[in-house]
Amino acid sequence: MLVYEIDAIQTHSITTNLKKSMQELWEVATISLSNYKGARYVVYHHYHDPGIGDFTLSLATESLVTDTPLAMPKQTFRKFSTKTSITNLWSQIHQLEQSGELRRAFTYDFEKYLPNGQIELYVSVC
User: Fold this and answer.
1) Number of folded domains in the chain?
2) Which residue of 104, 108, 112, 115 lies most exposed, with the fewest beta carbons within 10 A?
3) Residue 64: CA atoms inside 13 Å, Cβ hemisphere, count?
4) Rounded distance, CA 102 to CA 105, Å?
5) pTM of the entire predicted model
6) Residue 58, CA distances (Å) to 55, 101, 114 in order
7) What is the full DSSP assignment across 61-85?
8) For 20-29, what is each residue's pLDDT tens digit?
9) Which CATH number does the domain housing residue 10 bear?
10) Within 10 A of 30 (CB to CB), how many other CB atoms are there?
11) Is 110 exposed, middle or buried (0-12, 13-18, 19+ CB in 10 A)?
12) What is the distance between the alpha carbons of residues 45 and 6, in angstroms, rounded to a whole number?
């Protein structure tokens, strides 16, 4: 799958500033995407020490809004969706991990924000 990266940050999975960092990225991206009507992506990739270490968080689109492609290799995903809270969805994923019902691959995970308000979350699995 190919998306186009707007901006990215290196962050840590247990950083208390993760939410703030994401908000800052969205604010900058919103300005450059003011006329963009398609799906928007948050991509989690380049994991170090999966689940506890650093990773890259990128904001992206499906359309060529920038000239920075971000190619995700073909892999198996488990799809989750919501129209309410992405935070609750991630909590559900962490519970599934802890119970052993979900085995994440920690390659590329992404949130897809659709224009109709639906949020799809794709988690790479083993």
Assistant:
1) 1
2) 115
3) 1
4) 10
5) 0.88
6) 10, 27, 17
7) ESS-SSS-EEEPPS--EEEEEESS-
8) 777 778 787 7
9) 3.20.80.10
10) 13
11) buried
12) 15
